[in-house]
Amino acid sequence: MTEIKSDTNPDKRKRDKPDNYLDNWIERQSLIESAIPIIGKMHRNNVRILLYGSPLMTLSVIEIMQLHRKVREAEGNELSEFETSKVLECLDSIDLGPCQLDIGILAAGFMFDSKGMALEEFIQEQVREVIGVHQPILDKSQDLVLYGFGRIGRLFTRLLLEDTGAGETLCLKAVVTRSGSEEDLLKRAELMRKDSVHGRFKGTIRVDEQENALIMNGNVVKFISADSPDNVDYASCGISDAIVIDNTGMSSTKEGLEKHLKNKEVKKVLFTAPVKKELKNIVYGVNHDEIDDKDEIIGAASCTTNAIVPVLSAVDNEFQIDNGHVETIHSYTNDQNLIDNYHRKSRRGRAAALNMVITETGAANAVSQILPNLEGKLSANAIRVPTPNVSLAILSLYLKKPTDQEKFVEFLKQTAFHSLLKDQIDFTQSAEVVSSDIVGGRYAGVIDGQATKCKGRNAIIYLWYDNEIGYCAQLIKVVKRMAGIKYKKLPNFL
Asked: Which residues contact 494 (CB under 8 A, 6 or more apart)?
């Protein structure tokens, strides 16, 4: 993708200070208030609006204004609401088919690469591929089933319902859980509404005890009790050709996951953890093109693998990694011992809420499944720490091509904002960033530009990641690919 830098034409980024900052702020706020209904209307027509890779649907006025400020990390100056609102108004006047549009990139592109065209002409040129093209994304909506409703299941549901609106393309039909108490449905509704880390659910939930269903943002989701994947009555719920998202972590083998496929209403399975080597592990953004229509079972690797693989892929392509070590400082999870106890794996069975606990990690081996050219070049370890969410990966790499600190950090920055990996990688230069700042982040990983070091062939990259939401955002993308959903991404400055 063509780099759009502030020094290309600095005069176009230089703005006079407003006479009155408050009046200026109120005017910009008003522009975003007017923009939100347009964003919502376009979303319902399968036109997804982004700002430098960040989806704007469901965001508040202030959150969208904050994103405009954040663009200064990418372009050397913030983006103005006066610029993006004009772009959005222009897009709203065009008969657009399904697509994904980045109004931030469009606004910057107009300033630096318009070739003398008026805004309307420039926008028309950039979106001409989808004007009047109203072919449906799918012939019919894709039925989804969640097998398990723990943290990943609930957070996946949150993101799915935010993304799909009324469920025109992906439709969550059912959740399969083990048999519970009489108040099982009510308890699950409350856990869905409130999350101790991620706050309240952005929507409404109704409990229909008679149908044993939760109605979430208008989507009727049946809750089914079952003890085995091959013993679920999907037909009675009107489910067919379903994709099952198995988030139990119970079985990662082909034999175990094939049990889902014994049910004639299930056509594909996504396992939310690494699968054995005879099956494909997918990190969206890196090897998602390997997903074939014939693939019945896909593994989504781990949260750590999804965080580090995009960065490792970019660095290896540019500088060639000779060898390295991956250390993860990982928030403890429910699979650990909350108090001292025996652990069957190489994970010291000590109290997770009180200690830093050295554990094993399969991150290095998993990387080689995604990036075969790194086979045998990486080692890995992990330290579990007493935080509920957000982890930190430290990539200590020895490069074949030497570089320096400034060039290396600039490369990572450009990769985050202007490469094909910009939907997976974020970048921050904040000198005060801490783990809680990353909570809720939709990126697979966030590069810490301040902490990252490079001298010659030695590079150390610090990479934050929300090991819950960031991972679930990747899962959504994989599910879409499995369903055959492909949005045209514009603008295409290639």
From this structure: 1, 2
Q: Where are the alpha helices (DSSP H) in 287-400?
A: 303-319, 363-370
| pLDDT over 80 at 5, yes or no | no
Cβ atoms of 176 and 224 within 8 Å: the answer is yes
What whole-number distance in Å separates Cα of residue 392 and Cα of residue 386? 13
User: Token match 């108090």: residue?
Assistant: 339
pLDDT in tens, 205-262: 999 999 999 999 989 999 999 888 988 989 988 999 999 999 998 888 899 999 999 9
* Nearest to 370, CA basis, from 272, 286, 485, 278: 286
Per the document, the length of the chain is: 494
How far is the C-alpha of 368 from the C-alpha of 376, rounded, in Å?
A: 8
Can you tell me the mean pLDDT for 469-474? 96
Long-range contacts of 332-338 (CB under 8 A, 24+ apart): 332/357, 332/384, 332/385, 332/386, 332/387, 332/388, 333/384, 333/467, 334/150, 334/151, 335/249, 336/384
pLDDT at 88 over 60: yes
What's the burial of 41, exposed, middle or buried (CB within 10 Å: 0-12/13-18/19+)?
exposed
CB 227 within 8 A of CB 178: yes
Q: Which two tokens stand for residue 437?
A: 């700042």
What secondary structure does DSSP assign to 305-320, as a single string? HHHHHHHHHHHHHHH-
Phi-psi region of 212 (alpha: psi -120 to 50; beta: other; left: phi over 0): left
What would the two tokens of residue 150 be?
A: 């723990």
Three-state SS string over 25-70 comes to HHHHHHHHHHHHHHHHHHHHCCEEEEECCEECCCCCHHHHHHHHHH
Contact 303, 379 (CB under 8 A): no
What is the pTM for the complete model shown? 0.91
Q: Residue 96 has which token pair? A: 């657009």
Kindly list the structural domains of the chain, giving each domain's residue range(s) and its CATH number in brackets, ordered by start. 6-130 (no CATH), 142-272 (3.40.50.720), 304-467 (3.30.360.10)
Residues with a known catalytic role:
303
In the three-class reduction of DSSP (H, G, I as helix; E, B as strand; rest coil), residue 123 is classed as helix
Calpha distance 227→250 (Å, rounded):
12
3-state secondary structure of 192: helix
Which run of H or E residues covers position 389?
Answer: none
For the purposes of burial, counting CB atoms within 10 Å of the CB of 94, is it exposed (0-12), middle (13-18) or buried (19 or more)? middle
Alpha helices of 363-430 — where are they, by DSSP H?
363-370, 405-418
